[in-house]
Specification:
By secondary structure, this protein is mainly alpha-helical. Among the domains are: 149-354, no CATH class; 494-634, no CATH class. Helices cover 51% and strands 0% of the residues. The protein contains 31 helices and no strands. The chain is globular, with a radius of gyration of 30 Å. It starts with a helix and ends with a helix.
């Protein structure tokens, strides 16, 4: 009871202090410094809008700086004026809403009180504020996201009038794995844009849907940035779950602590309880946190390996450091929770568990800064092909491996080959190094990742007939990074109807380009892909970009036995979204249509509707890159 009396006494003392604080103190500032100046009237005339220039490459659009408005000066010299500065007024305690004291159904015993953490005591006595930040810096929920339109984001109001049911189906129904690297990049951009929520959906739930899909795509960093754009007090249950997955995907377990502190009692599942205890260790309650983890371990709320990893993570905080031995005997599978705690504590997951663990771990390992460069390089051979890593990021990674010169194995060998691809004395030697990098990864996804790696080295190659046999690979490599101007230089050494010609026919930014039937027939004659898949993709890409006549389209479709016009519910939805010029909805629906592990899961009909819809809503650069990628990888 002493503890209870102490808490009640402290509460009375704190209440007295708050009451005294309500009496405004006498100002110590001279003159009128404590009085804010009258704000200037707002402009009533909207600035003129200028059309944005259409980019020729899918690179990020530059941010346009706003011109400073001229300041009107008086014609006569006025008396010396005091330049008014913005005044930040102190927030009184009454501005921070405090949750009402709950009616206790059962008075806890002394033993139960001693076992409670400070957060639990705050909740018990209703001392936890609803908001952890004062009103002024709280962020609005009207638009949530990281990318503004000036930074390459999509227009914010595109989904505001759309049905929340349709938007939810398009996002929640996407499994996160797409056949197209450029499709992945475009969808990530759309999900990260600063957007208003659709009709019938709260902004928090909308942010949670987007963050969950980003996690499934392997974009943990983007998902974490998205959930951090929402104040913890505004989280909904779905956003809370998505945020936890984002913090697990980035191995940033303490990043969730502000959210858990605000919503401590919103969940009761074992993972939440253990996570909450770990957070208390990093809030200065190391000894009591370790005691609670010991109790939870004995209570068998999670498997022993999970509790040991949690103890090791929490034991790194404060003075309660504890040496915890992790034993993997008897563990047959890896989970995201185990993997996050393992790499966050500096441990290496067992190779036997990681052998068949799935691509999820490669996607998050490629960008995990706590892992070794060799591990990240091996994971990057999938992540780059998916669209998670850019060509520049891949070059930076292998440059670090070469500079440190302490990475044995394939990572160091690849770093040496990449260096030769850039600085070898002759073009033949540079091309030889690139081809070795490509051929070291026979699997389609890994090979394409190496094409991403060599994109800028390929752009440095001189155009010549002696390299015409390798032109398709060089062109595909350059286009994987959006270097279409460099790739188009190779049109002079690619014959009509060849594979290189077909890729460039889709990548060419010219709106007047038209392809005749004889070139398509030549391409089909030399097509060695399964079921003439490249020819079907070439037909779909050119038709979607309006680069073949209706007659050529009909004749070539009949030859390939492909029907681009057969409608489905999905095709009608994406075509309708394109008709009303809704970029965001088109991208979300395109993401649904691009799901799959490889290009063998894509059909020419789906590709046609995707490319056509993107082209019609002004995303022509992305449409061209997706079509060219399909022909190159089909």
């Amino acid at each position: 009871m002493k503890h209870l009396r102490f808490l009640l006494g402290a509460g009375l003392a704190l209440t007295s202090a708050w009451a005294l604080a309500q009496n405004a103190p006498e100002s110590l500032l001279p003159g009128n410094y404590d009085r804010p100046s009258r704000p200037a009237p707002r402009a009533t005339t909207a600035p003129a809008r200028t059309p944005a220039a259409r980019p020729t490459t899918p690179a990020a659009r530059p941010t346009q700086a706003a011109a400073a408005a001229p300041v009107a000066r008086p014609s006569t010299a006025p008396a010396p004026a005091v330049v008014s500065q913005p005044v930040v007024q102190a927030t009184t305690v009454t501005d921070v809403p405090v949750a009402p004291a709950p009616a206790l159904k059962k008075i806890p015993t002394l033993a139960e009180l001693e076992a409670m953490s400070p957060d639990q005591l705050d909740e018990l006595f209703g001392l936890k504020p609803k908001f952890d930040i004062p009103p002024a810096p709280r962020r609005a929920m009207t638009r949530v996201g990281m990318l503004d339109t000036s930074e390459g984001g999509l227009p914010p109001g595109m989904l505001a009038q759309q049905s929340g049911v349709l938007v939810k189906a398009a996002i929640a129904g996407n499994r996160g794995t797409m056949v197209s690297r450029w499709g992945h990049i475009l969808l990530r951009r759309a999900l990260a844009s600063r957007l208003a929520a659709p009709s019938g959906m709260t902004p928090a739930d909308f942010a949670g849907l987007r963050a969950a899909l980003l996690v499934r795509m392997g974009e943990g960093d983007a998902a974490r940035a998205l959930v951090q754009d929402v104040d913890p007090a505004n989280y909904s249950p779905s956003l809370t779950s998505a945020a936890l997955d984002a913090y697990v995907a980035t191995a940033d377990l303490t990043g969730a602590c502000p959210m858990i502190a605000i919503h401590g009692s919103v969940r009761k599942d074992p993972q939440w309880q253990v996570w909450r205890t770990m957070c208390s260790a990093f809030q200065g309650q190391g000894a009591s946190a370790m005691t609670q983890l010991d109790r939870q371990t004995g209570g068998n709320i999670m498997q022993r390996i999970d509790m040991l990893l949690a103890q090791k993570y929490a034991g790194a905080a404060g003075k309660a450091r504890r040496n915890v031995t992790i034993e993997w005997d008897g563990i047959s599978s890896m989970t995201p929770w185990r993997y996050a705690l393992t790499i966050a504590t500096g441990l290496k997951p067992p190779a036997s568990l990681m052998a068949d663990s799935g691509e999820y771990y490669d996607r998050i390992s490629a960008t995990a800064p706590m892992l070794g460069l060799g591990v990240r390089a091996a994971a990057a051979d999938r992540a780059a092909g998916r669209g998670i890593l850019s060509s520049a990021a891949m070059v930076d990674l292998y440059s670090q491996i070469h500079a440190l010169n302490d990475e044995a194995g394939a990572g160091a060998a690849s770093a040496d080959l990449l260096r030769s691809a850039y600085i070898a004395e002759t073009p033949v030697a540079r091309l030889t190094a690139m081809k070795k990098l490509w051929d070291d990864s026979p699997a389609p996804l890994q090979r394409y990742s190496r094409l991403v790696l060599t994109a800028y080295a390929a752009a440095r190659m001189p155009v010549g007939d002696q390299f015409s046999a390798d032109a398709p690979a060089l062109i595909a490599s350059m286009l994987s990074a959006g270097l279409d101007n460099n790739a188009l230089q190779w049109a002079k050494v690619t014959s009509s109807g060849s594979l290189g010609w077909g890729i460039l026919a889709c990548a060419n930014p010219s709106e007047q380009l038209q392809v005749d039937g004889s070139a398509l027939n030549s391409f089909y004659s030399g097509d060695r892909s399964a079921e003439a898949r490249k020819s079907g993709f070439l037909l779909a890409g050119l038709a979607g970009l309006n680069r073949i006549s209706p007659q050529v389209r009909s004749d070539f479709s009949e030859k390939l036995e492909v029907n681009l016009d057969r409608a489905t519910r999905w095709s009608r939805l994406i075509d309708r979204a394109a008709e009303v010029n809704n970029q965001e909805l088109v991208v979300l629906l395109a993401g649904v249509g691009m799901q799959g592990e490889g290009w063998d899961k894509m059909t020419p009909r789906h590709l046609f509707h995707i490319v056509s819809a993107l082209h019609r809503v002004g995303l022509s650069a992305e449409a061209r890159m997706i079509a060219a990628e399909a022909v190159a990888r089909g």
